[in-house]
Amino acid sequence: MTKWRTLLLATAAFNLSFLIWFSFAPFTGPIGEEFGLTTWDVGLLASAAIWSAPPGRIVTGWLSDRFGAPKVFAAVLAYVGAFSVVSAFADSYVAFFLSRLVVASAGVTFVVGIQHVAQWFPEEQLGTAEGVYAGVGNAGAAGGALLLPRLFGADWRSAFLVTGVAAIAMAVVYVLLGEDAESEARAREASERASLREWLHVATRYGVLALALAYVMSFGLEISMNGWLPTYFREGFGSGLVVASTFAATFSLAAGLLRPVSGYVSDRLVREGRDVLPVFAGRPREQWTVVCLSWVVVSLFGLTLAGETGSVGLTVAAGALVGASCAFAEGAVFAQVPAMFPERTGAAAGIVGGIGTFGGIGFPLIFASAETTLGSVHAGYAAVATLVIPIVLLNAWIARPALARRAHAAGPFDPSPARDRADESDD
């Protein structure tokens, strides 16, 4: 293997994982009709798709460091594929709901691939490589929204069966072709550092805590909208199944395909030593993250305003801008994570990626209840924008040069102060 073939393998596997993760979204209408679901039930299903991701990502990030990404990726794909097949034959909503909970753990593969790519690429290419991996991989949700309704119509059972078999096949490919790292020494170092003490050290650093919350408002928002937008366009504008899914796909495409651009920008700012926010001089990756997070807030308010006009075209365009803002924020965050913890990327990615998915659990519930509590189905986006402003302010505080230089070593809790001092001396 080379680093480029590793990137291609990880990206293809994650793209399929993301497609499977949100393969239910285009079929919420037919599924709701068959099982007699309300709009709230559909919102709960969208939320439930995220439940296993927070603990699952934390665990699989550590497992990837300890045992190597190929083994972990293949294992997850295999059982996710098996339960996708099971869900295709569910004869009750309870059986369907429980099997899809297991399928939803496909989302944990993100941190596995992050660790795998980081083990093959040098620091100066990390932002771009991780952006390509995550961005093209995330576009799997758009692929599902565009392709599945067209290939299978309203036949969600066939869709879940076929995608499940595809996941099992990809598991076999990954275990046969994947290699842990560019060298045995690098793989061995990651494995030896995968201890509880090391995990606790990473989990309690300021940098990880701030980036995890930044991922709540970027990736958490993205996955919540992947599951919610088909319902939103159907309920808010009376769109049909295929049309609503197509509108929703514009968000997913923007959220996926633009992520590499942000990673590249972060890399380039570092190489050129360029400041985009002079108040945080000398910390270009952190500056770029704060800029991108601010864009998320502004674009969410814009989506509410666009929806209130009643114009479908304007709302689709505003949704694409929200998707772009999520992509840029995610790319900025995961340009920082492996650069901050090069020897413990799996653990750091697992924590940031795991906590970040909590947004996907809570945000759909806000969206689904907006019409009742706020008087408009469009107002949920503005409500979320208001809630995440403190996260932007926290990341701006961490981005101050005096703290940013030590964000990988300092934290509110210090279970390993000796290690902190050693890390600081390396600066």
UniProtKB/TrEMBL annotation:
Domain Major facilitator superfamily (MFS) profile: 6-402
Bilayer disposition of the protein: Multi-pass membrane protein
Keywords: Membrane, Nitrate assimilation, Transmembrane, Transmembrane helix
Gene Ontology CC annotations of this record: membrane
Lineage: superkingdom: Archaea
Family: Belongs to the major facilitator superfamily. Nitrate/nitrite porter (TC 2.A.1.8) family.
SUPFAM superfamilies attached to this UniProt entry: MFS general substrate transporter (SSF103473)
Compartments reported by the entry: Membrane
Name the UniProt record assigns to this protein: MFS transporter
Pfam families, per database record: MFS_1
Entry annotated with the keyword Cytoplasm: no
Broad class of where this protein is predominantly found: membrane
Record-annotated membrane-spanning stretches: 7-27, 72-90, 97-118, 156-177, 198-217, 237-258, 288-306, 312-335, 347-367, 379-398
Keyword Transmembrane helix: yes
InterPro entries reported for this sequence: MFS, MFS_dom, MFS_trans_sf, NO3_transporter
GO process annotations (BP): nitrate assimilation
